[in-house]
């Protein structure tokens, strides 16, 4: 099966939409943590699951990470959002959230979910508003804790052969906190998504 393609007009339009949505999510995170959030330019490609671990910008593929995913669907567009946290981020994240308990795996999971809820909610809402679609969301699921990126993506490997992947990295200025947020849209969603983008471009 040939890999799907995205043309430059669609990529530019989606990048602009994602920039706005990610900016809103970054602003919410900055307010929550009372610190400056540095965002990368969205990187948009059609990928196979095996390509993703190599493509992550904020996280070295050999580093230990923890990940959360949340499915979304609405009006013929479906996909999932994934957040991968560098495991070195947890100590600083706990400080920023004024978390006083001992930082065991359960506490890290809570920090992961708190941050994920802020980023996923604001980002996916920002995208859905701009393309004029309502998304409904599944429950967030922890993909894994303290694993290599490639192991986390092995777990997701069976869900899709290729998809449109938008990746953006977040860093907190002055802290050792960095994460990669991925928005993965299924191949079946792309015809409708590209029609929406054509309408916005026109």
Give the arrangement of secondary structure elements:
Blueprint: H1 8-33, E1 37-39, E2 43-47, H2 49-55, E3 64-74, E4 77-86, H3 90-96, H4 105-130, E5 136-137, E6 141-148, H5 149-156, E7 163-172, E8 178-186, H6 190-201
Antiparallel strand pairs: 1-7, 2-7, 3-4, 3-5, 3-6, 4-8, 7-8
Low-confidence runs (pLDDT<50, min 5 residues)? none
What would you call the structural class? alpha+beta
Helices and strands, in order, run as HEEHEEHHEEHEEH
Extended strand count: 8
* Overall residue-averaged pLDDT value: 84
**What's the gyration radius in Å?**
16 Å
Give the terminus-to-terminus CA distance: 31 Å
Supply the CATH class: Alpha Beta
Can you name the CATH architecture? 3-Layer(aba) Sandwich
Q: Which sheet architecture does the biggest sheet show?
A: 8 strands, antiparallel
**Distinct helical segment count:** 6
**Structural shape:** globular
CATH topology: Chemotaxis protein chec
User: Could you tell me the strand content as a percent range?
Assistant: 25-35%
Number of domains: 1
Helix content bin: 40-55%
Summary of the model, kept short:
This protein is an alpha+beta fold and 202 residues long. It is 43% helix and 29% strand. The chain is built from 6 helices and 8 strands.
